[in-house]
């Protein structure tokens, strides 16, 4: 039994979908999974296991930010032998190439976090997605006729929701970054460390250029296309 999850052996499936918001985890379980059972409520960070198309799938909240996600991702892989984690969350568009409600599949994750600089003693490590999951996710999106609303590329995992130097974001855009969120870099790094698969799929909830945004309820409950892509991709690589 792990410190922060507290589930029993066998409670968690090899494939885990990981939203930041624990209420989004609850909504995913209730909306998409059959016979979903809650295996943890520790610190209000819900986790559920059920089935989708006959296959076992778990959903685990991670909280906001890389330090919080790192706790849950580490315990899932080290203590529960989880093989694949797919982050399903929201992101902010940083370029007009991407619109609100579009989906970004993160091929790699830039970051301003010091976590990897500490881990690699100052060297710059480039965390990337598992290619099998990435390809399966793009194929699943194409099958849903979402080609024009789905973007594959770099994401920016920021430690600050309210950055002290927002002007620096423009430089990221010049180098091809599509959107900003707060977790993918840590997830990709930990998956590499444990030899597991990871992918971040994010729905654009707000736009840093145009100012358009969705409500908190919409972010929690209306990102169904992203969830179906994640489930299809995850089970294709199981």
UniProtKB/TrEMBL annotation:
Pfam families from the UniProt entry: PNP_UDP_1 (PF01048)
Its Enzyme Commission number?
Answer: 2.4.2.3
Every copy of the Nucleoside phosphorylase domain together lies at 15-222
Alphabetical UniProt keywords: Glycosyltransferase, Transferase
Q: Which reaction does it catalyse?
A: uridine + phosphate = alpha-D-ribose 1-phosphate + uracil
**Which enzyme class, named as a word?**
transferase
Similarity comment: family membership: Belongs to the PNP/UDP phosphorylase family.
* Cross-referenced PANTHER family: FI09636P-RELATED (PTHR43691:SF11), URIDINE PHOSPHORYLASE (PTHR43691)
Protein name in the entry? Uridine phosphorylase
Taxonomic path: Bacteria, Bacillati, Actinomycetota, Actinomycetes, Propionibacteriales
């Amino acid at each position: 039994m792990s410190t922060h999850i507290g589930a029993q052996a066998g409670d968690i499936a090899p494939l885990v979908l990981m939203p930041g918001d624990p209420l989004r985890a609850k909504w995913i379980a209730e909306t998409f999974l059959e016979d979903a059972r809650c295996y943890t409520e520790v610190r209000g960070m819900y986790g559920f296991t059920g089935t989708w198309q006959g296959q076992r799938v778990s959903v685990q909240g991670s909280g906001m930010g890389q330090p919080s996600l790192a706790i849950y991702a580490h315990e899932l892989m080290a203590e529960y032998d989880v093989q694949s984690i797919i982050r399903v969350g929201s992101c902010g568009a940083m370029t007009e190439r991407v619109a609100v409600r579009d989906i970004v599949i993160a091929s790699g994750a830039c970051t301003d976090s010091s976590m990897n600089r500490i881990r690699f003693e100052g060297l710059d490590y480039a965390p990337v997605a598992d290619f099998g999951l990435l390809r399966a996710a793009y194929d699943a999106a194409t099958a849903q006729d979402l080609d024009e609303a789905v973007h594959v590329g770099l994401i920016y995992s920021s430690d600050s929701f309210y950055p002290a130097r927002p002007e620096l974001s423009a430089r990221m855009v010049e180098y091809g970054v599509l959107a900003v969120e707060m977790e993918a870099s840590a997830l990709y790094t930990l998956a590499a460390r444990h030899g597991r698969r990871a992918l971040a799929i994010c729905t654009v909830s707000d736009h840093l250029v145009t100012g358009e945004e969705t409500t908190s309820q919409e972010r929690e409950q209306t990102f169904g296309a992203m969830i179906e892509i994640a489930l299809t991709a995850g089970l294709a690589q199981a």
